[in-house]
Amino acid sequence: MVVPFETTVNEQGQTVHKPLFQAAPSAPSLEEAFNLCGPEATVCFLIHNGTEGGRDIVVDRRAILESGTKLAEIINGFPSGRKVVLRYDRIDIFHELLTFIERKFIRFHDTEQCQQIFQVAARYDCQELKEQCIKFLDNNLNLDNVLEIFTLMHSHSNGTKVPSFKSQGCCRRARREFTCTDEYISALLENCLQFIDTHAKEILSSNEMLQLSYSQLVMILTRDTLQVGSEMNVIKVLEEWSRIACQERNLELTDDNRRKMLGALCYAPRYLTMPTQSLDIVFSRVELLDENEKNLVIEVMNNRRNSSITSDQLKMIDSFRRSRTKRPSMPIHLSDRTHPKNYSRKMRKHPEGTNSKGSCAMYCLSTLICCFD
Q1: pTM over 0.85
Q2: Which InterPro entries did the record assign (predicted)?
Q3: Where are the domains of the chain?
């Protein structure tokens, strides 16, 4: 007799459905698994601030210990079952740090959040997260945030040099090998300066430029690759920045006090590259140079010889004569934005922004390589 599928005949000769097979589970239940995971397998951070109160964040203890961060030093030897109490202003940002350490993944929403995450990563020495932040910031650099990111990188930079190219030749074949996070910070700092070079006219006229510190201002205005268009843009920044500096220190707004505030920045403009009319306007508006220096510039401008000129004055005149480059330098490849393919062949042939002359054969070879790059 043929019986329907998934049925059978019982002892009474009736056709009934087969009983479903129920295998015993091999894995422990959720409650049993939780009991097997002792309190030493996790660690609870109690993060609090002055406004939001406290918040418990439970993460894997082993992930923290193997992270090599300062958090690993804090919980190493810490009694199990006790909460690690830490204070941080942004609890959500600290949560992102712990989540990254545990899962090795993070998703940034914007550059403002990324900068805050970078700061907490720097505070607790999470190198891998800092590198992720640097790449995101480099990829999203724009006119609105470049000075803010530049200030952040400048405050965390320790002067580490960016690694040079491993091999010589075309930008496509040459590679930089980063060995530490400090090199990434220096690279992003240099990319910020390169971005400022490229958009110097817009950035130098912004109010954020006047909020920079003296050392940051020196880094920007003394660059040979700064595409200012006219040195008047540099002089306007110095004029406004010195005025604000005198007001903050309750100093009288005189030329002497302005020169004291500016120091060596008085010699940042390339005076001898300016037209004579523009130079007359500068000297009539604000005296960044003293009388002797101003007279020396006028004599050189009028091709008058001065036999009593000193070696220091010669160096000063040479710096006033040195023109800024026609093109900015190439950025360092940290993200899709700074990929060499996004920049012109001229910039790729002269990555430092200079018009250095080499042999004819090497010039032709570099041109040919860039054509096929």
Answers
A1: no
A2: BACK, SKP1/BTB/POZ_sf
A3: 38-105
